[in-house]
Amino acid sequence: MDMFLTPENDIYLNEINTIPGLTGLSRYPSMLKKIGIEYKDLIVKLVELAMER
After folding, report:
1. Bridge partners of 4?
2. Which residue of 1, 38, 39, 45 has the lowest C-beta tally within 10 Å?
3. 4 phi/psi in degrees, rounded to 5
4. pTM value?
5. Sequence-ordered strand ranges (E) for the chain
6. Cα 21 to Cα 27: distance, rounded to the nearest angstrom
């Protein structure tokens, strides 16, 4: 969840990320790379799974 803190200490919610950290440099793809799953293969698999629905 992304949020902003104002100088008056008010918190404003900006967005809720349903799949946070899904860039090539993020933690989730980095962990998968350590077990042999490349980022491009992860994206292809996610698209394939979505298309099955």
Report:
1. 12
2. 1
3. -120, 145
4. 0.54
5. 2-5, 11-15
6. 7
CA distance 7 to 45: 43
Tokens of 17: 């990320």
Q: Let me know: does 25 contact 33? Beta carbons within 8 Å.
A: no
CA-nearest of 30, 34, 29, 31 to 46 is 29
- Rg (C-alpha) for the chain, rounded Å, is 16
Tokens of 18: 């349903």
pLDDT in tens, 1-53: 788 999 999 999 888 877 777 787 888 888 888 999 999 998 899 899 999 97
